[in-house]
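Journal club prep — side note

Before the paper discussion, L.F. wants everyone to see what a predicted structure for a comparable chain looks like in token form. Sequence:
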Amino acid sequence: MKKFFKILFFIVLFFILILWLVKIFLLTHKYQVKYYNEDKIEKDIVITFNGIYGYEKQLRFIDEKLAEDGYSVVNIQYPTVDDKIAEMTDKYIVPTIDEQVKKLNEINLERKAKNLPELKINFIVHSMGSCLIRYYLKEHKLDSLGKVVLISPPSHGSQLSDNPIADLLWYFIGPAVADMKTDKDSFVNQLGDPDYPCYVLIGDKSNNFLYSMLIKGEDDGMVPLATARLEGSPLKTIENTTHTSILEKQETVDEILKFLKE
């Protein structure tokens, strides 16, 4: 019996070590901000940021296409495994928005003197990033707000967060996962519907059949299509794309540009 428990102990220890290594080396990404067209702002600013476990490279295709179209693009990469959504927003998103608001206010003063229209700040965010920007816009009044595009958003949560295993592994997968449960009292379901121009884009193809087994109805591999919807915000499905491949589709960029220019 002692031998059995000894073996069991080392198996559990090994499992914990693997989870810790995954968290440190695969799920954790450092905070960094990347700028496009920073020195010559003649068009709106677009701030982009990732979802849970995401990183800058995932949004690079969209960022570069927007920059090519003349937008000043600011990408925020932030760590997602240590804090809840509100804390992440205050730590990593608010400072960059404040910086861009200050910069834009100065630019708009100059534009006003030249009888040019004011520029705006827009947001293009992926997955859990949608929860951060919705929280930010609920808590802050942004006079220079333009439009918001939510890509693959868990607007009303995801059944993946409801799974009891997620509660057991909270230290390794991050406390923000619990914020995205589907029950009516969860953090994400207290954010309300947008009162600003908002467009939802989501894929229709799963790349993870195990996750899809836990999700009710159609999904993109992470988020149920049904819970992505927000009252009053148009939604478009980008066909044959998954939760992440949607970020590298030209149709996604075309929809974003069309919405920003409307």
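L.F.'s comment for the group: The chain has two domains: 1-28, 31-261. Keep this in mind when we get to the figures.
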